[in-house]
């Protein structure tokens, strides 16, 4: 899986290019924005950021397994693959 920096994820902060971080994993939600049950505004507010705390407030682990994992594009890490959160 590809490694990204927090700074790289931060560049993807618009509705038509929207990435987030949850538990050190990077998700591309660009194609999901219009389908999100909570609405587009919710995702746009956290675009390009670590959304772990907010995500866990409103979702359980089953949602991540069923809906989230297919959108995972990488992890946060350095060149050696170690987490950099």
TrEMBL record:
Residues 1-77 form the Cytochrome b5 heme-binding domain. Belongs to the cytochrome b5 family. Gene3D superfamilies: Cytochrome b5-like heme/steroid binding domain (3.10.120.10). Keywords: Heme, Iron, Metal-binding. This is Cytochrome b5-like Heme/Steroid binding domain-containing protein. GO terms for molecular function: heme binding; metal ion binding. The keyword Iron applies. The keyword Secreted does not apply. It comes from Phascolomyces articulosus.
